[in-house]
Amino acid sequence: MASPNPRQRRAQAAIAASLGQIGFALPGSLVSRSTACGKTGCRCQADPPVLHGPYLTWTRTVDGRTVTRKITPAQQAHYQTWFDNARRLRQLVADLEALSLEVFDADNPPHQR
Questions:
Q1: Does 50 reside within a domain?
Q2: How many domains, in total, are found in the chain?
Q3: 60 in the same domain as 37
Q4: In a domain, 38, yes or no
Q5: Which domain holds residue 57?
Q6: pLDDT at residue 3, as a whole number
Q7: CB neighbour list of residue 45: distance below 8 Å, 6 or more residues apart
Q8: Helices in the chain by DSSP H: which ranges?
Q9: Do residues 56 and 79 share a domain?
Q10: CA separation (Å) from 17 to 20, 22, 82, 98?
Q11: In a structure prediction context, what are the per-residue pLDDT tens digits for the chain, which is 113 residues long?
């Protein structure tokens, strides 16, 4: 079995260094939503409608269940870097997995599998 080549080792080292630079990370999605309440005569039922909101919601999965929380604009400003870090973390892991597959495929052509 062959080892990763120098380029692949450098790429892995760069990914590992980037992983070491990531701080706190909040998983999930942060979304701004405006909604209609459905009450007759409410401004959200007018033509054109004036929806309620916007409301910031943070949705993530906990123990296989979807959990949604409302957050304030101040919380978003404070934690936005953490949401960005989680997105960067997912990208780095995907890059490392792709690099690992590249090394595996170079060492194990399809006809040998």
A1: yes
A2: 2
A3: yes
A4: yes
A5: 30-71
A6: 87
A7: 36, 38, 39
A8: 6-21, 73-107
A9: no
A10: 5, 9, 18, 17
A11: 768 999 999 999 999 999 999 999 999 999 999 999 989 999 999 999 999 999 999 999 999 999 999 999 999 999 999 999 999 999 999 999 999 999 998 888 777 55
Whether residue 61 is found in the same domain as residue 92: no
Q: What is the pLDDT of residue 112?
A: 57
| Structure tokens that stand for 41 in this block | 């005569």
Quote the pTM value: 0.79
Half-sphere exposure of 12 (CA within 13 A, CB side): 13
Long-range pairs of 61-64 with CB within 8 A, sequence gap ≥ 24: 61/27, 61/28
Write out the two tokens for 11: 């790429």
User: Is 66 found in the same domain as 79?
Assistant: no
